[in-house]
Amino acid sequence: MLIIGIAGGTGSGKTTVVKKIISALPPGEVAVLPQDSYYKDSSHIPMEERSKINFDEPNAFDWPLLYDHLRQLKAGHAIEMPTYSYLTCTRGSETVHVEPRDVVIVEGIMALTDNTLRSMMDVKVFVDADADDRLIRVIARDCIERGRTPQMVIDRYEGVLKPMHCQYIEPSKRFADLIVPQGGNNTVAIGLLTDYIESRLHHNNR
After folding, report:
1. Are 91 and 60 in contact (CB under 8 A)?
2. C-alpha span between 10 and 25 (Å, rounded)
3. CB 53 within 8 A of CB 45
4. Mean pLDDT, the chain, whole residue set
5. What's the whole-model pTM score?
6. Which of 170, 94, 76, 86 shows the shortest CA–CA distance to 129?
7. 5, 8, 4: which is closest to 170 by C-alpha?
8. What is the share, in percent, of the chain residues with pLDDT greater than 70?
9. Smallest Cα–Cα separation from 66: which of 1, 5, 146?
10. 90-98 and 79-85 strand pairing
11. 79 burial via Cβ count (<10 Å: 0-12, 13-18, 19+)
């Protein structure tokens, strides 16, 4: 099994990179664990307080559960991955059944910030993009998918996303084996990464 970490700022194009890797590999060969699925459950906190939680710092994630699920997959066991609602900021009652695959991708803003998680990875990738490009994507996504107004997104970007990016996400770039500039538009870097994954898989399967 090849465990790949794909990190990068919010709106950098991580999900696009993951989709292009999956489409380039044989069907059923990749399992994806979005780090967003491992946010801590906040259902016990009143909604008014819930909206004030900083979801862009390491403490927002349930790291032990993510470690455990990766270890189980590596041991050949299926897992029940949690789901998370951005609208209610709580963990969902349903889970997603994930079978072990030859490639497991952990994708999220903090995927490279944690030493224990990094030590479980075979390949570490950082998807890079200009701050203004990321902000444009975040505004478009949050207004359409998460019911926020452009001003709400901008206020959150200035008050939370930008400082947390500078404090936690950007410094994690130094742990990457590969940096993908221009996000999902960098077909050359994505092609090189995909070729490397295939070569590792062929080597492991000998």
Report:
1. no
2. 25
3. yes
4. 88
5. 0.87
6. 170
7. 8
8. 96
9. 5
10. antiparallel
11. buried
